[in-house]
Amino acid sequence: MINVIVELSKYIILTLMIVYTFHCFYTVRQPDEEERNELLRQQLILIFFIDFTAFLVIYLKTFDYKVVRFYIEMQIFFAVIQILYRVLYKKASLLLLNNMCMLLSVGFIMLCRLDITMATKQLLVAAGASAVALAIPVMIRKMRFLRKLTWIYAGIGVVLLAAVFLLARTSYGAKLTLLGVQPSEAIKITFVFFMASFLSRDTSLKAVVQVSAVAAFHVGILVLSRDLGSAVIFFVAYLVMVYVSTRNVGYLGLGLVGGSGAAVVAYHLFGHVRQRVSAWKDPMAVYQNEGYQIVQSLFAIGTGGWFGMGLCQGSPESIPVVKNDFIFSAICEELGGIFAICLILVCMSFFLMIVNIALRIINPFYKLIALGLGTEYAFQVFLTIGGATKFIPMTGVTLPLVSYGGSSLLSTILMLAIIQGLYILREDEDEEFEKRKKEALQRIRAREEIGDRTRRF
């Protein structure tokens, strides 16, 4: 009977995920506010039933009461977050909030299936990060001096990255953590704020050279620390922000050429890079060593097929570091390729919403922040999924909100809180525009009435 429930559950979860993904794109295009709110409520119901079905299966396969307790705690966390955002920020983007909850749900489901202890730690980090994040939208709205802290952002980034390079221990071939924390995750935010602060005031050649020097310092330290995934994310965010702020294709071309040259140099300088490229080119040839991880990932993806094997029916534990770098492979194996495609589309919906917010913001500082944070998010998703599927060499970055990792989870939730603050600012700008438009119309009507009275006399 349990096996029948497990088999049916994967189709139920998949169907609910497909409907949720459709809602992500359809809701954005819905002009009617009442209809949009109804779709958002339906999304919450879909998330609830996906969670209920998944955790029921995990419990039936393990009979571990910790799973039930975790499920209850997770539902309380989601309910509190949804209620607080609705009470504190009536102009917040509920679609953005729903997508965050959906991605967290997928992560919690897979982590609970793999290791309930790690899932509990992840939930605690998510709750703490969300508590801190609740204050960020109002800070973005009120703290207008953030644009003036240009060199403070740069200083924080350089000092923390230098500390990691000098003091951190090497793990998986790279220096990543200091005192159990990965500073590069937080520096993604300060780096974007630095770039936005500098380029929103000046886009001359001198300014571009200065901002490029600071960006090169960030990326250079990351490369020396062999944190190549973060280095690539920083570099892409730098390129996009410089190009958008200057609208100069030449800068984009120079950046791409320089980045390509740096990649070649890194390949020849670091054996760690050569190993990953070798594993990417022909993982079977080095299966016993550096190719083992990617081969196991591909086996998992192929085994899952379109519909997956069902929760607790696969063997994702055979993939090294599956909870961090290769959780996408575990999702493909047990929930299926169609579910994984829907997950990618939800991430894409996330990014498109952020870009839409950036395009509609008038203030150039906030516009660049939204664009920079959105670029970092999208490219991190690309690196993680591309590495797991052998589309690109593995870079060792996590899938935001889904993979296990306290620093990454904290940074991503704070980034989304900043985006929420920018969304609220955009709503304020729209209200101000409408207010001025009404005032202008009232003045025009008043003048017309005065003109009519004058003509009568």
| Basic shape | globular
Give the distance, in angstroms, between the N- and C-terminal Cα atoms: 92 Å
Radius of gyration: 24 Å
Unreliable runs, pLDDT <50, ≥5 residues? none
Strands of the largest sheet, in order across it?
A: 1-2
Biggest β-sheet strands, sense, barrel: 2 strands, antiparallel
On the 0 to 100 scale, the average pLDDT is: 86
Instruction: Tally the helices.
Output: 17
- Class by alpha and beta content: mainly alpha
Helix fraction? Answer: over 70%
Number of strands: 2
Strand content: under 5%
Give, in order, the helices and strands: HHHHHHHEEHHHHHHHHHH
Structure overview:
- There is one protein chain.
- With 457 residues, the protein is an all-alpha fold.
- It has a domain of 127 residues.
- It is 78% helix and 1% strand.
- A two-stranded antiparallel ribbon has the order 1-2.
- α7 runs parallel beside α9, α8 packs antiparallel against α16 and α9 packs antiparallel against α10.
- The protein is globular and about 90 Å long.
- The mean pLDDT is 86.
Notable characteristics:
457 residues; mainly alpha; 1% strand
Summarize the structure.
With 457 residues, the protein is mainly alpha-helical.
Question: What is the secondary structure topology, with strand pairs?
Answer:
Layout: H1 2-28, H2 33-62, H3 65-88, H4 94-114, H5 116-133, H6 136-142, H7 150-167, E1 170-171, E2 174-175, H8 183-199, H9 205-224, H10 228-246, H11 249-269, H12 271-281, H13 292-304, H14 327-335, H15 337-360, H16 364-388, H17 406-456
Antiparallel strand pairs: 1-2
Keywords: Cell shape, Membrane, Transmembrane, Transmembrane helix
Subcellular location: Membrane
InterPro entries: FtsW/RodA
